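Worked example 2:
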Amino acid sequence: EGRGLGLGAGPLGRGGAKVAEPGSDLRSPFSAVCGQPRLTLNRLVKGQDTVPGEFPWQASIQWRGVHMCGGSLINDEWVVTAAHCFFQVQNLTQYRVVLGAHQLLKPGPSACACPVQRIITNPRYAGQTTSGDIALVQLGRRLNFTDYILPICLPDASVHFPPGKVCWVTGWGHVRSWVDLPSPQTLQKLKVPIIDSKTCRILYLTNMQNRLPHRNIQDDMICAGYAEGMRDACNGDSGGPMACIVGDVWVLAGIVSWGEGCTIKNRPGVYSRLTSYQSWIREYIPNLEFVKEPKGRESRAVADIKGQKHPGAGSPSQAASVIANTLLLLACLLYLI
C-alpha cells in the first residue's frame, strides 16, 4: 500500500504560505549548492520534530489545498515524488506545491506555494508495489533559494548505499496507522538504517497472509527500517524523501513508496531507488548534476564489504595469522621431540 495517503493534514490557513504571483521572477540571483542546509543544526535533539530549515528540500504536494504527498526539491523548478500520488492526474490548476514550510498548518512567511506546470510519471509504473514509482513535478516558475528552500542532491548511478547506513525519512504523515500528526503538524523525521534487498525479500515472505499478494522487492527499490517494527515510514509521506549523507552533502537515496501497514514486524519501508532513474530524470532535466561518491570513501566502503567475504591473499592480517599458526605448529613439534 502507498505510504501516508489519506493523511490528516488539512488545507493551509489564510495568511500562511506566500503564493507565487503570475509573472513574478523568483529566480535565485546566486548559485546554491544542493544538499547543504545553511542553518547550523543540532541533529541529536531527542524526539521526532524537525527544526526550521533542517530539511529545506521537503515539499508538500497539495490537491485543492489539502496535503496529499511529500516530495523533494531537486533544483529551482523541479520536485521529485512518487508516481502513485498521481495515478489519475487531474486538472493541474488544482495542484500546488508548498516549499519552505515547517508546520503544515502554520507555514509562516518562509513558505511558498507554487503552481504546477507539468506532472510526469514514470511509464513503468502500473500500480501499487510495482516498479517505476517515481514522478517529476515541474513548478510554474523558478524558485528563489532561501535558508528554508534549498534542493537536495541526487546520487549518481554509481553511488552505493550499504546495508546499515543510517538515513533520514521526513514528512507530515501519520505518526501511527490512521493516527494523524497533531496540530500544528510539525515536519517529522525518522532515522532508518538501509536493509539489503535479499534480507528485505525474506522479511516480506515471513508470516505472509494469504489474503495479501506476494510483494517482490524489485531492483529499483531500496528498503530501510527495522525488522522489529515500532518505527516506520509512517512518519514520512508517500513521495517524501529518504535522505542520506554522502561525503559532506545530503543525497536523496529513496522516495517513500510502499509498505504493509505501519510499524509492523518484518515489514520495513520500501522506497524507490533514485540511482535506478538517473537516465530517466536526465531526459527531462538534462542539466541536472548528480553527486558521485567521494574518492577514497567509496573504495574504503566497498573494500570493507568485499574484505569481509573475500579477504586478500596478501593482506597483513592473513599473513600474521599464517605466521602465528606456523609458530604454534613448530612449538608443538619441539615439545614432542
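Confidence is low (pLDDT under 50) at residues 4-15, 20-31, 42-47, 298-337. The helical segments are 197-205, 278-284, 297-309, 316-336.
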